[in-house]
Amino acid sequence: MSGEPSIFFADVNERQGSFLRRTFVLGGVSALGITALIGRLGQLQVVQAQEYATLSSQNQFNFRMVPPPRGLIKDRNGVVIAGNRPSFRVLVVRDETKDLDQTLDLLGRLLPDTLERRRAIIRDVNAASKFNPVPVKSDLTWEEFAKVNQYANELPGVMVDMNEARYYPFGGSFAHVIGYVAKVSDRDVKAIRDKGEQPPALLFNPSFRIGRQGVEKALDLSLRGEPGGNRVEVDARGRVVAEDIGGSRPAVPGKEVILTLDADVQNRALEVFGDESGACVVMDVRNGDILCMMSAPSFDPNLFVGGVPTKTYRALADYERKPLLDKTLNGTFPPGSTFKPTTALALLEAGVDPNLTVFCSGSYRTGNRTQRCWGRHGTQNMHDAIKNSCDVYFYAMCNRAGVDNIRKAGLALGFEHEFDIGVGNQRKGLLPSTEWKARTFPRDPVWHPGETTSVAIGQGAITVNALQLAVMTSRLANGKKQLQPRLIKSIGGVEQPSGAEAPDLPFDPAHVEYVRQGMIAVANDRSGTAYRQSQLGLGDIQMAGKTGTAQVRNYGTGSRKSEIWALKDHNLFVAFAPVDAPRYAVAIIVEHGGKGGATAGAPRAREVMRTVLLKDPDMRARIERPLPPEPTGAAIVEDGVVGAAPEPDVVATPQAPRAAPTTTSGPRPYLSEPRR
Length: 676
Prior knowledge:
This protein is an alpha+beta fold. The chain is built from 22 helices and 23 strands.
């Protein structure tokens, strides 16, 4: 009936079927998840087990870079002139210190000199990578080493170890030619990046030192070597807990560099200069090898290895004699009368008869200017003019060749050149010419004859360096080849080209021999300008030379003598020996020496040359021979300083023209035909 309630009965089987379907779906999903998990675990533990084992090992072990030992630099005889030595040092690890300022305060009490470099230390520590030790001080004494170890418990993050530091056993003797090493600066990194290159990681290691100046800089890549690595075990924070010696990789030392220099000669050169400023270069005239390249005063390059104090650097930089300047390459000077052999060659090549004579009365008139000579030499031919260093002869004759031919001869002898000796930063000086005058002085472009007279005696605009003077002397002594100087003998056992592999000199050999005979007379004729100062006292071995004194200011009508160092003349001397079979040449520059070339330069050249010859076995054999008989005759010495610069030029008062030429300073020098 419609009014009765309806009763619905659910099917038990239907409810059970619904439950089973849900159970099956959930079970299937779970089974798939478990299967996937088991599969992934199997892949990780079986298939990729080795890969993750390696990653785990990398998390546990780290490689810490070890800078390589820098390559040794030796002289020609195998003497080490730049090496490495053990050094105790203090290091700080920033992330292991509780309070860096507090740690540095305590270190400052133990090592007071670290207080002066506190800012630099903090900068280096903050710039270092995580857990990378940064050197705070090197070369600890045993007492300092003991102090730091005594307070080790109070210095978390501070450690002491031993490393190799660059060492220069001869101090200042080789400072300029070898250079030194120092910390890598931001400018070094920037210079590499400016070239489009990526700086090697080694440059960012706080212990690494880069080459500065000289051979250390020029051959830095060869001397640098390949870094190694220490394999260390670290904890979760990256702190070292152990070292895996078996997994470490040793560093590869830099290449060994052999120079042509001789340590004994180099040391002797610095010794004979004493307190004077200047340069000395010695060359082998047979092959171009440089035996000595010394600049004075010098400095101790060992000061720069660990970082030179600011006060010390400023004292060196501000000293008027410039100990940081390499005067053999970077210092240019007027050559004075040492340039006269070049002028003489130019005259001979221009066809000037060397027997043509000039009368020297002590002065020479050019226009309204009277140029002085250092003495009154009377009648002079070219040989006499070289021997006596007569300025008047060269005043009178120089324009027969002209400045351009003088420049041409100078270029052939090595002036105004930068030589490929493996070391850059050379100043090539200047040989003036008519073209140079027009380019440099457009308001007065014409070359005047009176300007040639100054160049002819090594004054005026002409400037040279000590290496160029040595090259000139070596080429004259060799007489055949345009020798090239060589400083680097070998790199990593690879021999470098000899300087004897050079073209022939573009001069008539007879002309070269004539000039050589004049230089022989300078040192061996009793009337030569350097006779007394050039006697070697080594048996029958004789030395040839040429004196020079170059003024550095206009004397006006006053005296050239001055008590102010910077106003004194430069003194120069060049020489070669033995005269009969030349082997060695030397060039000496005494900056502001204030004396004649024979008085200041020749004695120093003699002592250096003696050292060179005594080290040569063949020369030592000659010394044992009996001495030749003494030549007869008395030495002739003019008034004034031997080898001195000319007296002040005098500008004559303009006078009205006359029918016959006159002079205001005695008889005018005249030319005469050669006497037959």
